Amino acid sequence: MKEDLLHFIWKYKKYPVNGLVSTSNEAIHVVSTGMHNHLSGPDFFNAQVELNGQLWAGNVEIHVKSSDWYAHNHQEDDNYNNVILHVVWEDDVAVFRKDGSEIPTLSLKEYIPLKVLQTYQNLFDSRNYRFINCENEFNEIDEFLKNNWLERLFVERLEQKSIYINQLLKETNNDWEQVLFLMLLKTFGSKINRDSFVEIGKSIDFSMIRKLHKKPLQLESLFLGQANLLESTIEGDVYFNDLKKEYQFLKHKFNLSPISKSPEFFRLRPLNFPTIRLAQLSTIYSENNNLFHLLIEHEELDFLKSLKLGTSEYWENHFTFGKVAKKSKKRLSTSFINLVLINTIIPLKFAYNRYKGGLENDVFLRMMSKIKREENSIIVNFGKLGITMDNAKDSQAYLQLYNNYCVNDKCLDCAVGASLMNIKV
C-alpha cells in the first residue's frame, strides 16, 4: 500500500458514501474532501466532515499507518493542530494533537473495493510494461480526455520553464535582454555544455555585449576567452592569435576571469563543438542589438531565420583552432533553429506574456504547432506505442508527461492513469 493511492481514494471518494465509521465508532459523513495540498503541511485543507452529526471544518492528514503521525513528528507541529480527521489504511495506534486531544481516525482497509486495489497493482506491475506503466492501455483512453490532458501538459511545461526564467530575472534585475542571452547560451550549449555555457554568460557583464555590438572579432574573443579556449599557444594560426590578443586586452580592461573548466568536446559532433556554437552566437550578437525586443515585436517565428546565423570566415574551414577542415558554411541548421524556438524563444515569450499580465495560451499553442517535433529516444518510444506526434506542441507535451509523471510513477496525478482507475482528474 502506498500513500498516493490513499490520497487518490480520499480525493475522489472511492469509498462507500454511507456507513463510514471511525475507529472510535463515530459515524462519519464526508461533506467535502478539501483541497489537495502538494506542499508541506496536512494533505487536504479546508475539508468538511460530520462526526456523529456534528459538522467539523479543518484539515485531513493521510498515512498508511496511524503510527506514521509520530514517525513524522506531527504531534510537535502547530500546522497539524487543525486536523479534524486522520485517514489511514491501518490503525495501529491512537493519535493525539499537540494539546493532547485525540484525533478521530478513519481506517480505509475495510471499505475499499478489491477492484480498485487490483487496478492499482496492475498499473505498477513491472512485468506488464517496458517503457511506461500504462503502455498496454494508453491507446484505449478517450481521445478527448487525452487531448485535453496533453494541452494542459504543454502549458505546464511552459510554466515550468518560466520558473527558471523568473529566477534569471531576479539575478539580472529584470533585464530581459540578458535573460535571453543566458537562455540562448543554455540552448547553444546543448545537454553536455549547457551549464558551462550559462556559466560563461554569467561571467560577463552584459553591458559589454552591448558595447561590442558591430565588433565581431572582439565579441568572439570575449566568448571564447571566457570559455577558457584561448589559453593555449598555437604557432602560425593568425586568427587564433588575433583573438587571443583581443581577449587579453578585454581581460585586462574589464578585469575578466574565465570559467575554471573549459566546455566539453568529447562525444559531440563537430557542428556542436563549443568553438562553433560560441562563434555562431557571437555573430548573432555582433549583428543584432536589442535582440529580445526584436523577437517580442515579431510574432512570426520565421523572423529568427532571417537573422545572420553563420560564423566568421575562419570557421568555414575549422572546427577547432589550428586544424584545417573541409570548407563548409557553419550556419545554424533548421533543426537547431527549431530547438532554439522550442527551448528559448517561445518559453521567453510565454514568460513575458505572464509578466505583462496576459493569460492566453492559444497563441503559444499555435506557435509550437508550426514547428517540427523533436527527435529523441523518448519520442521514438512513444511512437512504438502507436502514438502520432505531428509537431513540437505534441512532442513537448509527451516529454512533460514522461519526465514529470511516467518516470516518477505519478500515475494517479495523470489524467491517463486516473482514467484507468475509472475517475476523472
From TrEMBL:
Domain of life: Bacteria
Stated name of the protein: DUF2851 domain-containing protein
Organism this protein belongs to: Maribacter ulvicola
